[in-house]
């Protein structure tokens, strides 16, 4: 039997707050973190809102000397979340041998700050001098490497074990947690810092997701009503940003050091659609396979799942496809399972979103409360399941399913359960 | 410290502070770059890049190593265990006047030499290089 894997620490920087407890409380309260977009000048844009991280101070959040000056905005969220998760778990560089600790993070490949590129391009055009590009300081070349924030996390922990960077867009942190789970199951490490970070609140991303028709343009004057997964009036997703980190440990090692066990990672499954780039299969295929795979991996039946933390993006296509998949996999049990989407409050944290869903599952398991799906005003008759509308609900959660899907047709399912000594 | 009206001490201090993300008050002349200020090799590249932009003096990391070794071949600079010998230490004392040769004798390895390099040493190198450039142009 493979080794069991537990979660012993959580950290978060999200549109709902700059730590995990504040984020969880925001989810339970049904508070919206979506507001006017301030990271860019939105004049001339169809979309002027996003779920932004607010009042964030990296220097105040983490100790110096972990390579922080090489981080861009997304990485700062990840590193701050990682530091919180390590403290929450009571873990430091001496907890295990360095080689027994690793990092697995989902993120986008980074790139130079866009405004900086624009400025350099303008300078080149104005002066006619190609060497305008040599204003690029040497260390800038680090900033757009995906693994730099992970490297900073590794230095915090003096972790020299497995390292994995995943860039599968909106499913990235789901893959990162799942692959960290596998590393621990297989004995490659005793501790993995896993999660994701992202910040696509840039003009290029607002423009591009807008061109794809993926973002809602209909609630610019009422930002808190814009993200409405599963509601009949949903017209697209809302960009969010943030970082979420989890400390995963091999069960026996965690018990030996007296760790506070928050939950168990029980199953992981992945699939590809091999279909269209941005359309979700309306028959739920792809999602069906990842859901079935992770539930089987956990040794459970669909009826054993008490709560689904939905991918629930608020696009017409995703929410239909995801609901269809749930109905097909769960059969009659689909009527009973509670389903909600944190994105209704935070917007879509893209590469970090699946890790936020794991945080949500951990909270539900430990507090016996399922956060709501906000903005349920007009039920979509084609969907018709229990999306926990607008108000959190008391509910004992023993097993939670987490869904994450991405453009390109990349799907991840995770099962996170209450920790029980004998399984 | 100045040449052609440029205050190289200020330029170097600012370059160090900007590259390392520290307060300029921390970039004191006697601070060692790789030791006291916790710089890595990539930071040194950034510091030299900023100095070039501000002072129009190009210095490569290899120039620093060359300055420190003063053209003495490796085998004459250190022993077979890579410990800097008397000849090496005498040369280092010329480039890095602040070092305590007696304290370092028999201990200092070639790898550690760069860690003795201070903000003041860098300023001296920049000043010297600027003077050489000006003389060549005259």
Question: What is the total domain count of chain B?
Answer: 1
Outline of chain A, from the CA principal axes? Answer: globular
CATH architecture of chain B: Orthogonal Bundle
Oligomer: heterodimer
Question: What would CATH call the homologous superfamily of chain A?
Answer: Thiolase/Chalcone synthase
Mean pLDDT of chain A: 95
Overall mean confidence score, pLDDT of chain B: 91
Please report the first level of CATH classification, the CATH class of chain B: Mainly Alpha
Quickly count the domains of chain A. Answer: 1
* CATH superfamily (homologous) name of chain B: ACP-like
Q: Report the CATH topology name of chain B.
A: Non-ribosomal Peptide Synthetase Peptidyl Carrier Protein, Chain A
Top keywords for this entry?
heterodimer; A: 423 residues; alpha/beta; Peroxisomal Thiolase, Chain A, domain 1; ten-stranded mixed beta sheet; two-stranded antiparallel ribbon; 13 helices; 19% strand; B: 138 residues; mainly alpha; Non-ribosomal Peptide Synthetase Peptidyl Carrier Protein, Chain A; two-stranded antiparallel sheet; PP-bd_ACP (chain B); ACP-like_sf (chain B); Acyl carrier protein (chain B); 3-oxoacyl-[acyl-carrier-protein] synthase activity (chain A); Beta-ketoacyl-[acyl-carrier-protein] synthase family protein (chain A)
Structural notes for this entry:
The complex is a heterodimer of chains A (423) and B (138). Chain A has 423 residues and is α/β, with parallel strands linked by helices. Chain A has helices at 20-29, 58-61, 73-89, 114-127, 140-143, 148-157, 172-185, 203-211, 251-256, 287-297, 316-330, 343-346, 353-367, and strands at 5-13, 34-36, 49-51, 101-106, 163-166, 191-199, 241-250, 263-272, 307-309, 338-340, 369-370, 393-394, 399-406, 410-417. Helix content of chain A is 31%, strand content 19%. The N and C termini of chain A lie close together (12 Å). The mean pLDDT of chain A is 95. In chain B, helix 1 crosses helix 7. The longest helix of chain B has 19 residues, at 119-137. A two-stranded antiparallel sheet of chain B has the order 1-2. Chain B has a single domain (2-137), classed as Non-ribosomal Peptide Synthetase Peptidyl Carrier Protein, Chain A (Orthogonal Bundle), CATH 1.10.1200. The radius of gyration of chain B is 15 Å and the shape is globular. At the A-B interface, loops of A face helix 2 of B. Chain B: It comes from Streptacidiphilus pinicola. Chain B: Residues 6-91 form the Carrier domain. Chain B: This is Acyl carrier protein. Chain A: It comes from Streptacidiphilus pinicola.
């Amino acid at each position: 039997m493979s080794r069991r894997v537990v979660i012993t620490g959580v950290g978060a920087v999200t549109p709902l707050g700059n730590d995990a407890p504040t984020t969880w409380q925001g989810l339970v309260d049904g508070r919206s973190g979506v507001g006017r977009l301030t990271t860019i000048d939105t004049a001339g844009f169809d979309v002027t809102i996003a779920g932004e991280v607010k009042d964030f101070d990296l220097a105040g959040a983490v100790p110096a000397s972990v390579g922080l000056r090489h981080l861009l905005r997304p990485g700062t969220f990840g590193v701050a979340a990682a530091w919180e998760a390590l403290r929450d778990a009571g873990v430091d560089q001496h907890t295990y041998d360095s080689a027994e600790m690793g990092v697995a993070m989902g993120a986008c490949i980074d790139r130079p700050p866009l405004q900086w590129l624009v400025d350099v391009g303008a300078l080149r055009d104005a002066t006619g001098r190609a060497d305008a590009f040599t204003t690029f300081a040497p260390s800038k070349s680090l900033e757009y490497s995906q693994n730099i924030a992970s490297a900073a996390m590794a230095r915090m922990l003096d972790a020299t074990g497995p390292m994995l960077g995943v860039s599968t867009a909106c499913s990235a942190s789901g893959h990162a947690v799942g692959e960290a789970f596998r590393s621990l199951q297989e004995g490659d490490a005793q501790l993995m810092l896993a999660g994701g970070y992202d910040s696509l609140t840039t003009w290029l991303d607002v423009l591009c997701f807008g061109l794809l028709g993926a973002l809602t343009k209909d609630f610019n004057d009422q930002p808190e009503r814009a993200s409405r997964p599963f509601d009949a009036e949903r017209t697209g997703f809302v960009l969010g940003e943030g970082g979420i980190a989890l400390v995963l440990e091999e069960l026996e090692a965690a018990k030996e050091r007296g760790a506070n066990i928050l939950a168990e990672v029980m199953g992981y499954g992945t699939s590809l659609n091999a279909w269209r780039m941005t359309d979700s299969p309306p028959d739920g295929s792809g999602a069906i396979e990842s859901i079935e795979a992770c539930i089987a991996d956990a040794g459970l039946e669909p009826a054993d799942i008490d709560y689904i933390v939905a991918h629930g993006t608020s696009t017409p296509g995703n929410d239909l496809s995801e609901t269809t998949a749930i109905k097909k996999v769960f059969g009659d049990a689909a009527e009973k399972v509670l389903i909600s989407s944190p994105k209704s409050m935070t917007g879509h944290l893209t590469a970090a979103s699946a890790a936020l869903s794991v945080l949500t599952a951990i909270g539900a398991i430990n507090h016996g409360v399922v956060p709501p799906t906000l903005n349920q005003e007009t039920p979509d008759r084609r969907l018709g399941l229990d999306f926990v509308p607008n108000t959190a609900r008391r509910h004992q959660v023993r097993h939670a399913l987490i869904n994450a899907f991405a453009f390109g047709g990349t799907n991840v399912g995770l099962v996170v359960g209450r920790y029980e000594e004998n399984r | 410290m100045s040449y052609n009206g440029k205050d190289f001490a200020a330029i170097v201090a600012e370059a160090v502070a900007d590259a390392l993300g520290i307060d300029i008050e921390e970039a004191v002349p006697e601070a060692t770059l790789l030791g006291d200020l916790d710089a890595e090799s990539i930071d040194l590249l950034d510091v030299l890049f900023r100095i070039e932009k501000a002072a129009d003096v190009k210095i490569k990391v290899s120039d620093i190593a060359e300055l420190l070794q003063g053209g003495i071949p490796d085998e004459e600079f250190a022993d077979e265990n890579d410990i800097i010998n008397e000849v090496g230490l005498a040369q280092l004392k010329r480039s890095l006047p602040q070092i305590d040769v007696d304290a370092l004798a028999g201990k200092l390895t070639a790898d550690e030499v760069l860690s003795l390099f201070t903000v003041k040493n860098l300023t001296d190198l920049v000043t010297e290089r600027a003077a050489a450039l000006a003389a060549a142009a005259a």
